[in-house]
Amino acid sequence: MSGTLVLVRHGQSEWNLKNLFTGWRDPGLTEKGHEEARAAGQALKARGLAFDIAYTSVLSRAQTTCAHILEAVGQSDLETIRDQALNERDYGDLSGLNKDDARAKWGEEQVHVWRRSYDVAPPGGESLRDTGARVWPYYLHVIQPHVLRGETVLVAAHGNSLRALIMALDGLTKDEVVKMELGTGVPVVYRLNADSTVASKDVLG
């Protein structure tokens, strides 16, 4: 029996638009972000997907994206679990700063290392590895059991929390994962085998 896992990064946020480090800060979606989330729902509806349970972070941009998707597939009342294990990577002292201003303050190379390395955290924040250290156990113990029972599960979260999860699902190296980009509002549909390995992966966008 194979289950289905759908991962969706939230639609464009107001701080994505302003080129700010967001992390655990909580800006809302832009109008484009709302449209991206609704379009993700329509794409999933067109595939005939219906969900058994949904998971999202405690941040509003992911929760709103999740709500738009569920509304589009006609499941607005679906049980939805919110947990900070799925939150975006915490950017620490960079949170709220314009990325160009951060480069001016710390230098292009240092900011690039903080943004793109696997295991170097910005001051007061998390690396991608740190983010994975909370995402992976939550997935294994809470989300994956539903999928392995043959259910269809929606996870609406963030660029880095989902990159960490995709790293594990796809077996990416730390060099491969730092080069991976995840578009806003683009569903990634996994079908898993009974032994938790990936049977198929389909990016809808």
From TrEMBL:
Site (Transition state stabilizer) residue list: 158
Q: Which family does it belong to?
A: Belongs to the phosphoglycerate mutase family. BPG-dependent PGAM subfamily.
What terms describe the molecular function in GO for this protein?
A: phosphoglycerate mutase activity
Kindly give the PANTHER family that the UniProt entry links to this protein.
Answer: PHOSPHOGLYCERATE MUTASE
Main EC class of this protein?
isomerase
The protein, known as: 2,3-bisphosphoglycerate-dependent phosphoglycerate mutase
Q: What does this protein do?
A: Catalyzes the interconversion of 2-phosphoglycerate and 3-phosphoglycerate.
Pathway(s) annotated for this protein in UniProt: Carbohydrate degradation; glycolysis; pyruvate from D-glyceraldehyde 3-phosphate: step 3/5
Gene name on record?
gpmA
Q: What is its EC number?
A: 5.4.2.11
